[in-house]
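TASK: fixed-backbone design
INPUT:
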C-alpha cells in the first residue's frame, strides 16, 4: 500500500498559547473593578482591560501629561486601543458598564449647556441692542460734523464686553465623521472616540486620514485649512478605543494594511485579539466569551462603584477646567530608578524587534512601545490617586509588564501579514497540491513542468515557484530526479524504505532504478 509522506504541520498564529492578561499589574481600584466586570469568568479579561483602559485614559488625559526622558518633552497620557472580538463576547455590555459615568456627565453637560446658552442669548440680545444704539450715536455725531471721540470710546468699550457663546464640549464620540470630529475638537480639544461597533469607523472615510490621528496621539498642533472655511489650529488630545469583529479588521488589513503600517497609524495602538474559549455550554448568550468553567463568584459591586467614583472625581475636575478655560496639566516624571529601568527596557525591546527576533513583525509598534509604557505608567499612577508627581519604579515595572503582554499578543496576530508567513503558507499549499497529485496518479513521479502547467495559478511563474519547491525539497519528503543528465526533471517522493520512487516512462516503458535517500 502506498504511504506518501505526511505534510508538515502549518504553523498558524496560536492565540490560545498567549498568557492571560496580567491583571495583577493593575492598581487595586482598577484590578477590583476588572474582577467584577469579568463576572466569574463570563467575559474575557483582555476585553475588560481594554474597556477599563479606555475609560481611565479618557478620565485622566485632560489632567496629566508624562515627561519622556529621551526628548525631555511632555507627552499626552491618552491611549489608542484596538480590540478584536467576535459577536457575543460582550463588547457592548462591558463598554456600557465601564462608561456609565461619562454618559451621565454628558447628559449633565448637555442640560447645563442649554441653560448657559439661554442666558447667553438673553445677554447677547441686550448687548446687541446697546451696540446698535452706540453705533447710531456715532453715526449721528459724524453727520453733525463732530469728531465723535466720546461715542467711539463708548462703542469700543462696549464691543470689548461682547458675551462669549458657550462651548458645547463633547467628551465622547461614537459615530463621527472626520469633519465633525475636527469641528468638535476645535471647540473642545480633549475627548474620546469610543466605539464598541467600530465597523462604522473602518467602513467610512474617517479611516483614510491617519495623519490626523497621528497628530492627536503625538500631542502636536493640527492645522486644518479648507476652502470657504475659517482655518483652525488646535492641539487635540484623543483617546481612541475601537472594538470590532476580526473579519472586519482582516478585510481592512488586506485592503489598506500597507498604508496603515507605513503611516504609523497602527503602531500607536495597544492591540488585542480576544481569545475564544470552548467553555461556554452553560452560558449560551455569551457565545465564546466564557473562560473559567463552572465555579461560584460573588460580585463585589462596591468595587465597580469605587472605580466609577474615581472617574466622577476627575470629571468634576474637568468640568472646572471647562468653566474656567484653564487647560493647564500636571506633568508626571519618572523617578531615577524608574528612568533607568525604562531605558533598559527600551534597549531590550529594540533588540527583539530586529530581523529574526520575535517582535520583528511589529517593529513599528515596538518603536512606540516605550512611549506607550510611559502613558500606561502615568495612568496607573494618577488614577490610583498618588499624591506625588513622580512615577515610581514599581509602577513603571507594572506598566512594562502590561506593555510586554500587548506586544506579544500583537506579534502573534500580525505575523500572518509578514512575507515569511505568506511564504510558509504558499509552501504548505503547494506541498498539499503535490501530495494530492501523487495520490491521484498512484504515486508515479511527474514532471516538474507539470506544476507550471497544471498547478495553482499563483505558482505558475518560475520566479514564484522555484523558491517554494526548493523549500519543499529541503524537507526530504520529495526530491528531483532525472533518468539522464539532459532529460526532463521529475518530482518524486520518498518511500517508507528510504528510497525515492523511480521514474516510469509510459511511452517507452523505460523504468529507472529506485533512488536511495541522499545522505
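OUTPUT:
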Amino acid at each position: 500500500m502506498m504511504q506518501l509522506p505526511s505534510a508538515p504541520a502549518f504553523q498558524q498564529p496560536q492565540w490560545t498559547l498567549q498568557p492571560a492578561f496580567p491583571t495583577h499589574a493593575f492598581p487595586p481600584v482598577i484590578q477590583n473593578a476588572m474582577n467584577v466586570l469579568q463576572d466569574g469568568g463570563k467575559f474575557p479579561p483582555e476585553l475588560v482591560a481594554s474597556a477599563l483602559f479606555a475609560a481611565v485614559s479618557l478620565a485622566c488625559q485632560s489632567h496629566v501629561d508624562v515627561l519622556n526622558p529621551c526628548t525631555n518633552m511632555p507627552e499626552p497620557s491618552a491611549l489608542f486601543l484596538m480590540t478584536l472580538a467576535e459577536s457575543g463576547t460582550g463588547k457592548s455590555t462591558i463598554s456600557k458598564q465601564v462608561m456609565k459615568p461619562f454618559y451621565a456627565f454628558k447628559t449633565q453637560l448637555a442640560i447645563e449647556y442649554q441653560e448657559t446658552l439661554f442666558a447667553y442669548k438673553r445677554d447677547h440680545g441686550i448687548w446687541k441692542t446697546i451696540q446698535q444704539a452706540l453705533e447710531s450715536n456715532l453715526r449721528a455725531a459724524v453727520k453733525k460734523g463732530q469728531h465723535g471721540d466720546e461715542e467711539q470710546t463708548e462703542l469700543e468699550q462696549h464691543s470689548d464686553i461682547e458675551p462669549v457663546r458657550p462651548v458645547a464640549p463633547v467628551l465622547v464620540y461614537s459615530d463621527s465623521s472626520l469633519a465633525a470630529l475636527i469641528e468638535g475638537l476645535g471647540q473642545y480639544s480633549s475627548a474620546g472616540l469610543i466605539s464598541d461597533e467600530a465597523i462604522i469607523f473602518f467602513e467610512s472615510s474617517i479611516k483614510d486620514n491617519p495623519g490626523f490621528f497621528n497628530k492627536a496621539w503625538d500631542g502636536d498642533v493640527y492645522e486644518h485649512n479648507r476652502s470657504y472655511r475659517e482655518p483652525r489650529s488646535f492641539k487635540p488630545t484623543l483617546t481612541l478605543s475601537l472594538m470590532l469583529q476580526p473579519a472586519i479588521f482582516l478585510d481592512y488589513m488586506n485592503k489598506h494594511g500597507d498604508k496603515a503600517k507605513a503611516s504609523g497609524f497602527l503602531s500607536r495602538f495597544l492591540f488585542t485579539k480576544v481569545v475564544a474559549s470552548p467553555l461556554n455550554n452553560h452560558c449560551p448568550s455569551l457565545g465564546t466569551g466564557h473562560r473559567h468553567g463552572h465555579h461560584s463568584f460573588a460580585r463585589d459591586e462596591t468595587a465597580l462603584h469605587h472605580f466609577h467614583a474615581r472617574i466622577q472625581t476627575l470629571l468634576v475636575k474637568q468640568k472646572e477646567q471647562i468653566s474656567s478655560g484653564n487647560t493647564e496639566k500636571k506633568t508626571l516624571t519618572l523617578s531615577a530608578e524608574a528612568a533607568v529601568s525604562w531605558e533598559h527596557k527600551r534597549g531590550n525591546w529594540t533588540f527583539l524587534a530586529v530581523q529574526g527576533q520575535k517582535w520583528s513583525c511589529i517593529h513599528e509598534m515596538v518603536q512606540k512601545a516605550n512611549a506607550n509604557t510611559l502613558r500606561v505608567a502615568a495612568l496607573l499612577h494618577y488614577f490610583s490617586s498618588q499624591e506625588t508627581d513622580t512615577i515610581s519604579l514599581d509602577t513603571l515595572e507594572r506598566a512594562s509588564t502590561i506593555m510586554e503582554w500587548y506586544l506579544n499578543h500583537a506579534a502573534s496576530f500580525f505575523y500572518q501579514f509578514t512575507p515569511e508567513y505568506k511564504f510558509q503558507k504558499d509552501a504548505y499549499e503547494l506541498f498539499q497540491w503535490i501530495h494530492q497529485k501523487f495520490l491521484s496518479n498512484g504515486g508515479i513521479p511527474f514532471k516538474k513542468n507539470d506544476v507550471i502547467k497544471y498547478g495553482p495559478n499563483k505558482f505558475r511563474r518560475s520566479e514564484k515557484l522555484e523558491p517554494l519547491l526548493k523549500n519543499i525539497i529541503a524537507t526530504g519528503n520529495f526530491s528531483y530526479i532525472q533518468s539522464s543528465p539532459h532529460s526532463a526533471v521529475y518530482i518524486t517522493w520518498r518511500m517508507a524504505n528510504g528510497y525515492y520512487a523511480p521514474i516510469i516512462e509510459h511511452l517507452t516503458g523505460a523504468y529507472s532504478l529506485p533512488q536511495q535517500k541522499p545522505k
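COMMENT: Residues 419-516 form a domain with the Arc Repressor Mutant, subunit A fold (CATH 1.10.10.580).
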